[in-house]
Amino acid sequence: MSSNLLIDKMCIYCGNHFIARTVYTRYCSKPCNNRHYKQRKREEKLVLYSKGIDSKSMVPLPFHKNRTYLSSKECCEILGISRHTLMRWIEGGMLKASKICRRVIIHKSSLEILIKNNEL
After folding, report:
1. In terms of pTM, does the model score above 0.70?
2. Closest to 86 measured CA to CA, from 60, 114, 62, 66
């Protein structure tokens, strides 16, 4: 909202003096506003990347010690692969699995055999 007031201000991005009509104006022009916005966003990204991986994303996955069979989702989490890759391995014979109705169940021993056979 403009008014009849003429306020002498200084742009917070470039430092030029300008005449503002509102008390809330902080920039001398739209390009200064855009440049300062982009600069702030770049600095925020740098701060995020400098912090590295936060501790929330590094939650240890529960290893299912009590169960001898794993679901396809649990198997994918342990191996760090997608469900599609897991299904390809099962269909290709690399990994033995059982199907009960529509549910795929993988025995832990077959998972260990797969890991031992593919070690470098």
Report:
1. no
2. 114
